[in-house]
Amino acid sequence: MQTITTVAELRRALASDRRAGKRVGFVPTMGYLHDGHLTLVEASRLQSDVTVVSVFVNPTQFGPNEDLSTYPRDFARDEKLCRDANVDIVFAPDAREVYPGRFETFIEPGELAKPLCGAFRPGHFRGVATVVCKLFNMVQPDIAFFGQKDFQQCAVVRHMAVDLNLPIEIVTVPTVREADGLAMSSRNRYLSEEERRRALAISRGLFAAVDSFRAGEREVEKLVSLAKGHLDEVDRLQYVELVDQDTLKAAESPLCRPAAMCAAAYVGSTRLIDNVILA
Ligand code: PAF
User: Fold this and answer.
1) What confidence tens digit (pLDDT) does each residue in 4-42 have?
2) Distance 137 CA to ligand 1 centre (A)
3) Which atom of ligand 1 lies nearest, measured to the CA of 58?
4) Among residues 197, 198, 279, 203, which one has the least CA distance to residue 240?
5) pLDDT tens profile 222-256
6) What are the pLDDT digits (tens) for 120-136?
7) Domain ranges within the chain, ordered by starting residue
8) Are 267 and 198 in contact (CB under 8 A)?
9) Residue to substitute in 132, 134, 275 for testing ligand 1 pocket (most ligand atoms within 8 angstroms of CB)
10) At CA 61, angle to CA 55 and CA 62, rounded to 5?
11) CA 151 – CA 62 distance, rounded (Å)
12) How far is CA 181 from CA 208, 259, 270, in A?
């Protein structure tokens, strides 16, 4: 496994693979890897010949009062996990490599970036789309892998790839959960034992909606209030919404198209997101 920190070096390292017609798979991450990321790596190894994992905590997707400075980082551990998972290249640029001085060109996503997290994190998806587009240009993958936990991010990136004619297949990989249902996230490490217990209310609420949907419920309001009913243990609920899976617009009753039930909530000072698909 090679660890590379510059774009020039990355291009050199991938040149011979590209000449040999190898398929390059890409897993973008902000590090502090967990089993969710390793599942993306596994998917990439199955569907490509060379797997590149980027580790970059992207400043432009954090708001002024968010956790950029405290975001968990442990690069030595990330490198070891990647080596053990047979990653070929870890690309770990620093902020100056990604955003050199005078950087001023951003990708502005449209309607998909407005609801849900977009309403609570102004500029977040602009930062995500910009860095993902830049990383795509740096790595030039054939296929890229994203976790479904970041449902709206997947939608924004997929749409960007179509809008900008990026020749990259975007694959969404199902959310990996702890045995008790908590969606894996690097931010889970912020949770105290007591907060972690209360954080389970989020997946419990979403699963209750799935059960009810499977039992035949198609009324949006009922499904949403069922999920909400489980969420009184969180400290600050930002949203629980049922949205059309493709447009992310509010789903309509009776549900007859695939929809995503999405939630975001603070437990203590940690913001957690999760979602399930009702289809
Ligand atoms: O999902 C993440 O970890 C980040 O948003 C991503 C896609 C690596 C862009 O910084």
Assistant:
1) 999 999 999 999 999 999 999 999 999 999 999 999 999
2) 15
3) 10
4) 203
5) 999 999 999 999 999 999 999 999 999 999 999 99
6) 999 999 999 999 999 99
7) 2-173, 186-278
8) yes
9) 132
10) 105
11) 18
12) 12, 20, 17
- Ligand 1: residues whose CB is within 6 Å? 28-30, 58, 61, 128, 131-132, 150, 153
Q: Which residues are catalytic?
A: 37
Q: Where are the alpha helices (DSSP H) in 72-123?
A: 75-84, 95-98, 117-120
Which residue's alpha carbon is at the smallest distance from atom 6 of ligand 1? 29
Q: Residue written as tokens 């908590």?
A: 182
How many DSSP H helices and E strands does the chain contain? 9, 9
Between the alpha carbon of residue 76 and those of residues 36, 97, 105, the distances in Å are 18, 20, 32
Q: Tokens 């990026």 label which residue?
A: 166
Burial 118-129 (b: 16+ CB within 10 A, else e): beebebbbbbbb
The domain at 186-278 falls in which architecture?
A: 2-Layer Sandwich (3.30)
- Residue 49: CB partners within 8 Å, gap ≥ 6? 17, 22, 23, 24, 25
- Rounded to whole angstroms, the Cα distance separating 83 from 76 reads 11
Which CATH architecture does the domain made up of 2-173 adopt? 3-Layer(aba) Sandwich (3.40)
Express each pLDDT in 198-228 by its tens digit.
999 999 999 999 999 999 999 999 999 999 9
CA of 197 from ligand 1 middle (Å) equals 26
